[in-house]
Amino acid sequence: MKTVRNMKRWFTSLTLLAFLLAVICNWSHLVSSKKPSDEEVAFVNDRAQHYSEMGQEKLPSAVAAAAAAVKEHQEVKTLDEALLKIESLEQRLKEIEYRIPKKYPEVNFLTYKDRKRVLITGGAGFVGSHLVDRLMMEGHEVIVVDNFFTGRKRNVEHWIGHENFELIHHDIVNPLFIEVDQIYNLASPASPPHYMHNPVKTIKTNTVGTINMLGLAKRVGARVLIASTSEVYGDPEVHPQTESYWGHVNPIGPRACYDESKRVSETLAYSYGKQENVAVRVARILTRTVLVCIATMAGWCPTSSSRHSPAKTLLSVIGIMAPKRPGTPTGASEKKRKNNIYGSGKQTRSFQYVSDLVDGLIKLQNNNYSLPVNLGNPDEHTIEEFASIIHTMVGGKSHIIHKDAMEDDPQRRKPDITRANNILGWQPLVPLQQGIKKTVEYFRRELMRSKHSERNLHDPAEAGKLKTTTHSTSLL
């Protein structure tokens, strides 16, 4: 019986084996005889070429190796094998792309004892984003908080994903709980069109927002720098303006929402310093005023460089810099060739380049001096002079039109920077002409953009390279 059973088992096994061998042989013959059509071959070649180019032009060596494997498509004998290989390579490329780290500027390395966690409110704005670049390049951990009212994510997008960088969409009018070593409180609209657009919001940002930042500094033992303004001096009766001058401000004028709330923010800072022992620094940035349209055209309002928000008034004037695009109506082009000066044009301002301001802010933050410090350029010139400089630089056939003066517009503005020089060893270094030239170049490129991909990129590694050892006052 056992012998019969064993024979049956062997017979069944041999039958199954023979059947499987027959199936495999027939399938192999069927597949080998199936030849792809010309269209199918073209499709395979096109996909292989596509991934080959990705490996050579876009992706690093790891992906290039995968693309090299695609070239083996000539060895594929059947369409099924080709499609399976393409699908496999597509998945492999996706996996490799996820593993490829984003390229960032090379930053300095700081040890744990030297590296600081720095919070910058308004860090996606004009001054804030340049400060972010400088601190990131130095090797610190930077946390940007911005509600994007006047700031733009684009200003700091090149740092998103970096291990030392964090971006938080938040309005400082609401409390913020975070652990930091230093705070730069730059959050506030700074130009009249912006802060007059919502005066109550401006006041809340500079008062309630400042209270929240001072409260945060108290809780975590951080040092906080308050970005104040020359507007605390109002329309000054003292010239040049020193930090000891109390100012001449209209408390109910159109600019009062900004002027007076900044004065309150200073009062709050020193009240927290006296009552709660919070380490405070106050920088009075000279000058933070949007002037006539022709002056704002170059971005020197108040602190020039790229990234300044091109307001409607700015665009209406800066149009003389951009070549007329095909299809633009003649009348529309002509409207951009009238440059307005509000008032006589004899009012004066003093402008600094943003890299100088960033230097001053960092030096003040890391200094033990706690009284207010003017950070500005004492090189004073009239609005008419600035208009002439910019008009000469950008060219065009524009002409200047004088309009009624703005209410409470300061007639003279020149900082006394003796304190900054003596205490911080700071003074502006970038010549006016050089700064305006860089700014005009930025806006010219910005105006020539016709699609999102034509990015007007900024290299953080270039920050501060405009510095010179001598300060030029030559203008005309």
UniProtKB/TrEMBL annotation:
Residues 453-476 are annotated as: Disordered. InterPro entries: Epimerase_deHydtase (IPR001509), NAD(P)-bd_dom_sf (IPR036291), UXS-like (IPR044516). One of its GO terms (molecular function) is NAD+ binding. GO terms for cellular component: cytoplasm. Residues 118-367 form the NAD-dependent epimerase/dehydratase domain. Residues 453-465 have a biased composition (Basic and acidic residues). Residues 466-476 have a biased composition (Low complexity). GO terms for biological process: D-xylose metabolic process; UDP-D-xylose biosynthetic process. SUPFAM superfamilies: NAD(P)-binding Rossmann-fold domains. It comes from the Eukaryota. The keyword Transcription regulation does not apply. The keyword DNA-binding does not apply. Its cofactor is NAD(+). Residues 1-33 form the signal peptide. Keywords: Decarboxylase, Lyase, NAD, Signal. PANTHER family: UDP-GLUCURONIC ACID DECARBOXYLASE 1, UDP-GLUCURONIC ACID DECARBOXYLASE-RELATED. This is UDP-glucuronic acid decarboxylase 1. The gene is uxs1.
